Amino acid sequence: KHVNQHNVGLLDNVDAFTATPNISLLLGDTFSESGVAVERVLEWAQFDNVHAIVGPAFSSEALPVSYVAGALSLPVLSYGATSGSLTVGHPFFSRVVPTDATYARALAKLVQSFGWQKIGILYIDDDFGGSMLREFGAAAGKLNIEIAVAVHFEYANMQSLSDAMSSLCHAMVRTIIVVTHENSLEDIARIADSAGLIGDGVTWLLGNPNVEPTTVADLSGSQELNRMFSGWIGLLRSNRTQIFSTLLSRLKPTDVDFESIPISEEELSQMPRIGACPTCGFAYDAVWTLAFAAARMQHADYRNGSALNQAIRQVRFKGVSGTVALDSKTGDTLAEERLFHVVNWAIEHDAESGLLGRRLIAQLDVSQGFLAKNESGPQWSDGSIGWTAPEDWQCGTGSIFNHNNRTCEVCPAGSFANKDTDKCELCGLGSVA
């Protein structure tokens, strides 16, 4: 609607223009299924007036969509697909969102800044999960962070998720990074709770900046989920707050065509509570990128997919998500992310409802670590508050707690676990462990 009205009010330092043709919108819900996403592309390919695709949001859908659309010379511009697998070999795919590599470096720096040296990873078995595992592994290795165990699970497969939790329990790690999508988060929390991995000194870190536990807890209406998510820690893009404040303060209900988008005015008004959609700003900028590309072509034949694709990668402007500039060869965004907000989810004890809230506790630079920290520190799963994570002393028989690695370690043969000194000590003469 803003594009067709030539309303650049939400963009910075962009002059009004009138050369852009009207953009018609066709919505296709993928239902988070790559097969459905491909079907939508094939349906649209039958129409002469479909010249480009904005989306999809998930890497697992973007990969097959990119292959099919590329064969049809149909440009794809994503606002949420972050996998590094999409950088090479996808000539008609571009994106305005940074790749997994940037977030993985920030996440590794967060682990190092807390002083943790050994962690476990639980990741979803799709392209996004595999990409994040590779990128984090590379970043963690440079910082001497050991990945004690990395286990995957299949989406909506409860047995697979239970088996993964058992592996995490067996590894006895106390810091776990979870790489998943929002639609799996409730199942993860409930099964982790059943496995004894919620509380008791276990710290969960979110490996996806687009996942919002507050939203999951609110939509479920479960007080139990509030407890399970309390103490979790994650990273948000530093421009995310700016995106939300810009869109929600300046985007009025009268600016929204509720007949064209699957959201009600009531849901829009509730976005400040649930955090809005993490990719809103990128999606908004993706549409404007397409508009500016069309204007650059000056009414040329938009059915020339190669020319439109090239024009998309030449666009430069300051959007609501920051600077929009794409690599002319790969289509990846050139915008560099260095600053992130460190956030902590905790039950709002001062609120009568006891809802789960999100607290900003620090700023993080991907090279320097913490730039600024609040005085109190995060609230951990056991309710304690401070910059030192609580340590679980209840390791199994014959094991001690390693404070540096935050893991339970089995004492070697011929020694026993002295719980008073938290050390493995040799058995005395005439005794056995």
List the helices and strands and how they pair.
Elements: H1 34-44, E1 53-54, H2 59-71, E2 76-78, E3 93-95, H3 100-113, E4 118-124, H4 127-142, E5 146-153, H5 158-171, E6 175-179, H6 185-194, E7 203-206, H7 213-220, H8 223-229, E8 233-237, H9 240-250, H10 265-274, H11 280-297, H12 305-312, E9 316-319, E10 322-325, E11 339-347, E12 356-365, E13 369-373, E14 399-402, E15 407-410, E16 415-418, E17 423-426
Parallel strand pairs: 1-2, 2-3, 4-5, 4-6, 6-7
Antiparallel strand pairs: 8-11, 9-10, 11-12, 12-13, 14-15, 16-17
Helix pairs in contact: 1-2, 3-4, 5-6, 7-8, 11-12
Write out key terms for the chains shown.
four-stranded parallel β-sheet; four-stranded antiparallel β-sheet; 12 helices; 32% helix
Short description:
With 433 residues, the chain is an alpha/beta fold. The protein has helices at residues 34-44, 59-71, 100-113, 127-142, 158-171, 185-194, 213-220, 223-229, 240-250, 265-274, 280-297, 305-312; strands at residues 53-54, 76-78, 93-95, 118-124, 146-153, 175-179, 203-206, 233-237, 316-319, 322-325, 339-347, 356-365, 369-373, 399-402, 407-410, 415-418, 423-426.
Overview of this structure, please?
- With 433 residues, the chain is an alpha/beta fold.
- It is elongated and about 90 Å long.
Shape: elongated
Portion in strands: 15-25%
Major sheet size, sense and barrel closure: 4 strands, parallel
Poorly predicted parts: 271-275
Number of helices: 12
N-to-C order of helices and strands: HEHEEHEHEHEHEHHEHHHHEEEEEEEEE
Radius of gyration: 24 Å
Distance between the terminal alpha carbons, to the nearest Å?
74 Å
Total count of strands = 17
What is the overall pLDDT average? 84
- Percent of residues in helices comes to 25-40%
Order of adjacent strands in the largest pleated sheet: 5-4-6-7
SS class: alpha/beta
